[in-house]
Amino acid sequence: MEWLISPGLTDYETAVSTMEARAEAIARGEAEELVWLVEHPPLYTAGTSADSKDLLAADRFPVYETKRGGQYTYHGPGQRVVYVMLDLNRRGRDVRCFVRQLERWVIETLDQFNLRGEIRQGRVGVWISRPDKPALPDGTMREDKIAAIGIRLRRWVSFHGISINVEPELEHFGGIVPCGISGHGVTSLVDLGLPVTMDDLDVALRKSFDAVFGEAADGPVCAG
Q: What pLDDT digit, counting tens, does each position of 167-208 carry?
């Protein structure tokens, strides 16, 4: 499979058209699977479950409607967006298991920086417990989101993917209710006091990918 890191900021519409074309080529057997790492200029995207009331500042940044799963999310400089074009025909046609693999990929990547990422029922993405911050009004410990997940499948080839906050402007998330979840917050690797660069994260992503996904093979390989 191919790994590609694009320098600078990638236009969102260009990214979507590129992903769609590559996914079609993979489905036809004319291209390799691709993991594509990019950064975008500041923007909001609306997934298929997006509720218009969760867009709090519609005129702040461009808003793109997208057919990936999920609700509103923010992309911008300092956030690594990882687009995964993988052939589930070869990896097992199990969407839920594939999403679990993506979650595990993020968690194992964060673990390389001694950071514990967690999954919460009913809350999409990967979360960090914040005992250092005031609890919620009901006494629940606050948790901050560090990574978002949203995919789409076409002919059992995935596109869209995950985003991990390295050092974005966290205030930019204030124009939306991220993924429709209020009460909890958003964080980043640098916000948590970790001197992690984008290059550091890319190396960790590559290492964890091999551990989680392994080599594509005929028949189901998705497990756990």
A: 999 999 989 876 555 667 899 999 999 999 999 999 999 999
Residue 97 known to be catalytic: no
Question: How many Å apart are CA 216 and CA 20, to the nearest integer?
Answer: 21
Contacts of 209 (CB under 8 A, 6+ apart): 35, 105
Q: What angle in degrees, to the nearest 10, is found between the helix axes of 95-111 and 198-213?
A: 130
How far is residue 38's CA from residue 131's CA, in Å, rounded to a whole number?
32
Sheet holding 63-65, edge to edge: 63-65, 43-46, 72-75
DSSP state of 33: -
Query: pTM of this prediction?
Result: 0.91
Q: Which DSSP string corresponds to 161-217?
A: EEEEESS--GGGGGGB-GGG--SSEE--TTTTT----HHHHHHHHHHHHHHHH-S--
Residue 48 · residue 125 · CB < 8 Å: no
HSE of 172, CA atoms in CB hemisphere, 13 A? 21
State residue 140's pLDDT score.
85
Please pick, among 50, 85, 128, 179, the residue that the annotation labels catalytic. 179
pLDDT of residue 218: 40
Task: Work out whether strand 72-75 and strand 43-46 pair parallel, antiparallel, or are unpaired.
Answer: antiparallel
Name the 3-class secondary structure at 160: strand
Beta strands in 39-122 (DSSP E): 43-46, 63-65, 72-75, 79-85, 118-120
